[in-house]
Amino acid sequence: MKLYDSIGPNPHVVRMFLAELGIEIEKVEVDLMGGENRQEQHLNRNPSGQMPTLELDDGSFLAEITAICEYLDEMNGHTSLIGKTAEERAETKMWVRRIDLQIIEPLTNGFRYSEGYDLFKDRLHLIPQAADDLKEIAQERLQWLDGQLEGKEYVCGDRLTLADIMLYCFLNFGTTVGQPIDQKNKNIVSLHSKLDSLDSASA
Amino acid sequence: MKLYDSIGPNPHVVRMFLAELGIEIEKVEVDLMGGENRQEQHLNRNPSGQMPTLELDDGSFLAEITAICEYLDEMNGHTSLIGKTAEERAETKMWVRRIDLQIIEPLTNGFRYSEGYDLFKDRLHLIPQAADDLKEIAQERLQWLDGQLEGKEYVCGDRLTLADIMLYCFLNFGTTVGQPIDQKNKNIVSLHSKLDSLDSASA
What we know:
homodimer; 4-stranded mixed beta sheet; 8 helices; alpha+beta; about 50% helix; Glutaredoxin; 4 strands; Glutathione S-transferase Yfyf (Class Pi), Chain A, domain 2; 2 domains
């Protein structure tokens, strides 16, 4: 297998997940800032033009971070990062989708439509007039998530999962683009700090 | 198991998926129009306040349509609706997330922020000034998907999957809220008609 990799929070999620799984995969760097991911060679790998993309042993390509991480976990015999039982896997996927749709999408689109405007204006249909509200929504849902984390060590109770890794990588990304972690969200601050201390965080 | 069910495209996805699996589950109707899903009793089942929600045999609750369908499929011995092999499952999840983020999210938010404004104004943070662009994005990505469907019977080649079911249910929903299927997208029109002829479509 081969991982087409780049800067950005999405590839970071997969690298951190790989590090937590304890496996290494050959990496090929794609120049995201230069727009190499939107050119024909990468579009043949991933027609969405996004990063990262995993090349499987049979030469086919797998995109979308959740699909990639779940596949790698299954190839590794089903670990607690996604879930050892069907019920654990279901719980992880539920929280992954909540964080994906309610927090990551508004946070990243809020960035793309404002600070990221120049980088994305020739790549995506942008909605600059929605940027401020999207950033507010991300913060409102983070506050909601903070309440949901009460009494739990990780998003899925006592298991470190893909949900935590996605949250962590995008919280870090937010911090670099003007959407810092609200220190009033004590449970999120604590979860972030827990993940920040993992060796895998710097993967 | 017990499915907390309501009107709307999300519950429709799960009902159609159940019908394709050929299994029946007890259903409990929740009054979505009356906002019962945003009240305490349902929030205890699903703190996101969304429909549907599956109650498992152990009394725990599972939300998010993708997590619910993948769990039901796994309980049913892994069918081609999600995938019989790890590679098939990965392909399905990749396309499900593309359709979810690139088409369903802008289509439904486009609705919520305009025609759906009055219904959602006390439930969600709305961005009315983004509605037109969101609807345009949904159409642009449907056009892109139409190209991706060229030469394929279903989104994942010759397999009917959750990706088709989600696309179908939300295309239908779009039609009822002023976002009809663009007849120029021949492959999407053909796929929609294929699913429309299934008995499960009316589930």
